[in-house]
Design goal:
The protein is an alpha/beta fold. The chain contains 18 helices and 18 strands. It has 2 domains: 140 residues, 2-Layer Sandwich (Chitobiase, domain 2), CATH 3.30.379; 386 residues, Alpha-Beta Barrel (TIM Barrel), CATH 3.20.20.80. 35% of the residues lie in helices and 18% in strands. The strands form 3 sheets. Strands 1, 2, 3, 4, 5, 6, 7 and 8 form an 8-stranded mixed beta sheet that branches.
């Protein structure tokens, strides 16, 4: 009995002094990892982090890394610029690698002298710091405040330059603080493009100073559909909210510090009831147009033949460009029924003025389908072209959903392929840049578990599980030539919020599926192994808990 008691005390003491041990099997998995598990470097309080004194961005990343290490391990490191004997050194210098992703290249070396993070640009140092952060993990309460890091050589770079996530803030509005947390989660996964869906039939969320009533009135709907599917059951509670330009600039700054670009979307010419509610003259019938309280595709869209439409759009996109420095500006272009245009005198007059005719192969009503170049679809292409030229004068590139193929692509348009991959393949064959975002792989508003009763209610539709996302290959070598494959910029996950009204639900839908998506975005196909991914996931999930976000505890 006495021996057992002494043994128990010794075991408790051993656990108390047990150091936290790093593990480089993280998400996303780095390209090249060479580990020597027989030797370790011990990181403990009182040591220092050094960085190049001339670079403010490196200093900022060093401060972030200092905070992450203390939060996750209890180890308190001091910042000491230029310290050649520091335990953690952050160094900037040119590196070899994939020219298309060279700015994000980085390496990590751990040996007897400490930890060295190297990159050719500050963004690479940030990626390296995130990798180190995930490698050290999060300690158990019984562990001492020190970390054992096995010796390692890591060389890494992303596969795709565009690694996006969409958040729909039009259907439901989320606070600036919540979006910052969303950006932090994106940064943890190596994502670099935040596609911000700001306007839709159900609400206008972007302040346009020249049109002061647009956000004030267009952001508010009188009620919201709360029934499952398309049932018309409403809560009869007014709902609203919009972002001031100052708040948008604050988020642009916050995202940039995490090397994330914000891609704003103003969806046009469909999905515009919130604007037409304020300016009914922009519609073909003159209204009235209530801000939509329910979901779906609405028949009323901006009038393609009204010159006021183009003036309105240029005012909106002009202020959008003033606020968002993004190279990419998203114009939507999806789900724009042409029923009103077919019967509208102004639209038909504009079609005649432009000399537009329907192709012989398709003279249907032109609901934005991929197979029809009706005169009305071509009118939408003309409108897209006018906005594309307007954006190009400001050094911006237009992105649109794959419906923009229907009337013929404008000169430099980027296609975001959501109705499967067919639109992306066609655009790449036409030598247009493509972002793959097919609904069956990338729409994370859909259920992630087979059993609907084990998850919050969302769209009553097909399952988009972690394994489904993980299986996606965006380049499709059997469908594209080697040259055409170069037009695939990257991949994006989309979180629509018709049925996602609260931050907790947002993160539940996002995680851990973003872990699966980020390996599609970051890793080469030969690296991917779903069973191995599931083994690496728990370390990442501990950081979700530390960040205070909800996540789905089941992976299918």
């Amino acid at each position: 009995m006495k021996k057992a008691f002494l043994y128990s005390l010794l075991l408790m003491y051993a656990c108390a002094v047990c150091a936290q041990r790093a593990d480089y099997n993280i998400v996303p998995l780095p390209n090249r990892v060479a580990v020597d598990t027989t030797q370790v470097f011990v990181l403990q309080s009182g040591m220092t982090i050094a960085y190049d004194t001339y670079d403010d961005e490196a200093a900022r990343t060093a401060q972030m890394l200092q905070g992450w290490i203390e939060e996750q391990t209890g180890v308190k490191l001091e910042l000491k610029p230029g310290d050649g004997r520091a335990a953690v050194k952050m160094q900037l210098f040119p590196m070899r690698g994939n020219p298309s992703a060279v700015s994000e290249n980085y390496s990590i070396v751990v040996d007897k002298s400490g930890i060295v993070l190297r990159a050719s640009a500050p963004v690479g140092l940030f990626r390296a710091a995130q990798t180190l952060r995930k490698s050290i993990g999060s300690r158990a309460k019984s562990q001492e405040s020190r970390v054992e890091l096995p010796y390692v050589n890591i060389d890494d770079e992303p596969r795709f330059s565009y690694r996006g996530v969409l958040l729909d803030c039009a259907r439901h509005f989320f606070s600036v603080d919540m979006i910052k947390q969303f950006l932090d989660v994106m940064a943890l996964h190596g994502c670099n493009q935040f596609h911000w869906h700001l306007t839709d039939d159900q609400g206008w969320r972007f302040e346009v100073k020249a049109l002061s009533d647009l956000a004030k009135k267009g952001s508010v709907r009188e009620k919201t559909a709360i029934g499952p599917g398309n049932m018309r059951i409403y809560d009869n509670i007014p709902y609203g909210g919009y972002y001031t330009q100052e708040e948008c600039r604050e988020l642009v700054r916050y995202a940039a510090e995490r090397y994330i670009n914000i891609v704003p979307e103003i969806d046009m010419p469909g999905h515009m009831l919130s604007a037409m509610h304020v300016f009914p003259e922009l519609g073909c019938t003159g209204g009235p147009y209530p801000v939509a309280p329910h979901w779906g595709v609405m028949r009323d869209v901006l009038c393609g033949g009204n010159p006021k439409t183009l003036d309105f759009l240029k005012t909106v996109f002009g202020e959008l460009c003033d606020v968002f420095p993004s190279e990419y500006i998203h114009i939507g272009g999806d789900e724009c029924p042409k029923e009103r245009w077919q019967k509208c005198a102004k639209c038909q007059a504009k079609i005649k003025e432009l000399g537009l005719t329907s192709d012989p192969k398709n003279t249907g009503e032109g609901r934005g389908t991929q197979d029809g170049r009706s005169a009305e679809n071509k009118l939408q292409t003309w409108l897209n072209h006018e906005i594309e030229q307007f954006l190009a004068q400001r050094g911006r590139s237009l992105i649109g959903w794959d419906e923009i193929l229907s009337g013929g692509l404008t000169g430099n348009a980027i296609v975001m392929s959501w109705r499967g991959v067919k639109g992306g393949i066609e655009a790449a064959r036409q030598q247009h840049r493509v972002i793959m975002s097919p609904n069956v792989y990338a729409y994370i508003d859909h259920p992630q578990l087979k059993d609907y009763s084990k998850q919050p209610r969302t769209t009553d539709s097909y399952q988009v599980s972690c394994s489904k996302i993980y299986s996606f290959e965006p380049v499709l070598p059997d469908s594209l030539t080697a040259e055409q494959r170069n037009y695939i910029l990257g991949v994006q996950a989309n979180l629509w919020t018709e049925h996602v009204a609260y931050p907790e639900h947002v993160f539940y839908q996002l995680l851990p599926r973003l872990g699966a998506m980020c390996e599609v975005q970051w890793c080469s196909p030969e690296q991917k192994d779903f069973d191995d991914f599931k083994k690496r996931l728990p370390r990442l999930e501990k950081l979700y808990d530390l960040m205070g976000v909800q996540w789905c505890r089941q992976v299918e």
